[in-house]
Design brief:
The chain is mainly alpha-helical and 110 residues long. Helices cover 82% and strands 0% of the residues.
């Protein structure tokens, strides 16, 4: 073999070896990246699930609060209506009940 042919074969062999090493390195780096991304995704999914559960609980609590406030309003209206009906019943009128009269307002002219 000619000297330049041996040198060519040596360089070619060295390049092939380096190429295989680079392929292995690239494959390992890619797998490490995929593994990190999967782990990060799992952590994010856990956070999302936790936040979703908190949100559902908060919505449930708000709905209960709204129901209580509506019930309080209904009860207050019933109490006011009952008090109004008691004070305006015919029984009260027979006992000398007279509605309040509005005071007369006099306007002074200039």
């Amino acid at each position: 073999m000619a000297p330049h042919n041996r040198e060519y074969q040596k360089i070619r062999s060295q390049n092939e070896t380096e190429m295989k090493q680079c392929q292995v390195r690239d494959r390992d780096e890619k797998q490490a990246l995929v593994s990190r991304q999967l782990k990060e995704r799992q952590n994010l999914q856990t956070q999302i699930s936790h936040t979703t559960q908190e949100h559902k609980l908060e919505i449930s609590n708000l709905r209960q609060d709204i129901s209580r406030y509506i019930e309080i309003g209904v009860q207050s209206q019933q109490i006011l209506r009952e008090e109004y009906n008691k004070s305006n019943s015919p029984k009260d009128r027979s006992q000398g009940y007279e509605p309040e009269r509005q005071p007369k307002i006099y306007c002074h002219q200039r």
